[in-house]
Amino acid sequence: MIDWSPLRGLIAATFTPMNKDGTLNLKAVPAITEFVIGQGIDGLFVCGSTGEGTSLTSDERRAVTEAYVSATAGRVPVIVHVGHNSVEEATALAAHAAQAGADAIAAMPPAYFRPESVDVLIECLKPIAGAASNLPLYYYHIPALTGVHLPMVDFLAAARESLPTLSGIKFSNTQLDDLLSCVQFDGGRYNILFGTDEMLLAGLAMGAAGAVGSTYNFLAPTYRGVIEGFQARQQTDAQSHQAKATEIVRVILAHGGLNALKAAMCILGEDCGPPRLPISALSPDQFDSLGTQLRALVE
Predict the structure, then answer these.
(1) Cα dihedral: 26, 31, 37, 40 (round 10)
(2) Dihedral of CA 102/106/109/111: which sign?
(3) CB count, 10 Å around CB of 11?
(4) Which residue numbers are catalytic?
(5) Minimal CA–CA distance to 292: which of 258, 254, 259?
(6) In degrees rounded to 5, what are phi and psi of residue 277?
(7) Is residue 92 part of a domain?
(8) Domain of 165?
(9) For the chain, what is the domain count?
(10) How many Å apart are CA 187 and CA 246, to the nearest integer?
(11) What pLDDT, on the 0 to 100 scale, is given for residue 4?
(12) CA angle in degrees (0–180, nearest 5) for 56-179-54
């Protein structure tokens, strides 16, 4: 029986820990999990963009999934991203996630040969959903990386009957009008999780009940301030916390992309090692500069 309870609050997009040679360092997962849960998050999102899922082999993704499911020990829900350029591989990963004890699955679309319509996208998702038919499915909407720019409210309308396990969308896009339409679609039927950390307050204003992000791993208390201020209608307080988080994100992104985010986790949280190629690690000077600026901001 599928648990349709909506995921709420802060869901940390987990990092995949690696050794200096780019191999997995799964021994680090328990410590990472304890730190992140200790920050006060409400769930984990495994093998997404932050977790470098598309740079891992399918066997590695299975190993990472098992490690995080084991480390959480049921304390918070675990969403496993199973999307792949091969629908067949994504389907196999979905079946494994269900077997491994995941609480939900998410899937981005194929991103090399892309679905050109909502109908084709749904056809890609059907076997994935079917392989984990006991789990809620979240569509992973991140058009900046996938190149799939289909309107999500149109997707929900078309998927209403054909994807019965669809629970919502991980909405990693700044098109707030589409976000609002998805939140309100069919009386709020779907659980829309906002995926842009530096705009969390805007996502809350559009009605998103939950959010998935990289910096929630090490800044959850600051984002809690955003949520609590918003819920208490203390707009100035919510804006103050969001401004702090946004400035930290700005500093991180000024030093790079995922490489800088992974370095920030090392500086403010637990060491997850370097990224895997084609992403290059920060240089020692860049790492030191980032650390100096981040520590000044979080003090």
Answers:
(1) -130
(2) negative
(3) 24
(4) 140, 170
(5) 254
(6) -55, 140
(7) yes
(8) 9-234
(9) 1
(10) 31
(11) 62
(12) 5
The Cα 230–Cα 232 span in angstroms is: 5
Dihedral-angle region of residue 33 (phi above 0 means left; psi in -120 to 50 means alpha; beta otherwise): alpha
For residue 147, what is the DSSP state? -
Q: Determine the Cα angle at 239 with ends 236 and 244, to 5°.
A: 130
Assigned domain for 225 exists:
yes
Asked if residue 123 is part of any domain, the answer here is: yes
Cα(130)–Cα(172) distance, integer angstroms: 24
The pTM of the full predicted model, rounded to 2 decimals, is: 0.96
| pLDDT value, residue 6 | 82
Along the chain (299 residues), what's the average pLDDT of each consecutive run of 10 residues? Answer: 73 97 97 97 97 98 98 96 98 98 97 97 98 97 97 96 95 97 96 97 96 97 96 96 97 97 97 96 97 93
Report yes or no on 142 lying in a domain. yes
DSSP string, 62-88: HHHHHHHHHHHTTSS-EEEE---SSHH
Query: Exposed/middle/buried for 143, CB within 10 Å: 0-12, 13-18, 19+?
Result: middle
Of 210, 180, 295, 233, the residue nearest 223 (C-alpha): 210
What stretches of the chain adopt beta strand conformation (E)? Answer: 9-13, 43-46, 78-81, 104-107, 137-141, 166-171, 191-194, 210-213
The full DSSP string for 207-225 is T--EEEESTHHHHHHHHHH
Amino acid at site 295: R
CATH number of the domain where residue 78 is located: 3.20.20.70
- Rg (Cα) of the chain, in Å, rounded? 18
**pLDDT of 55:** 97
CA distance 214 to 249: 10
Residue with tokens 């200096």: 20
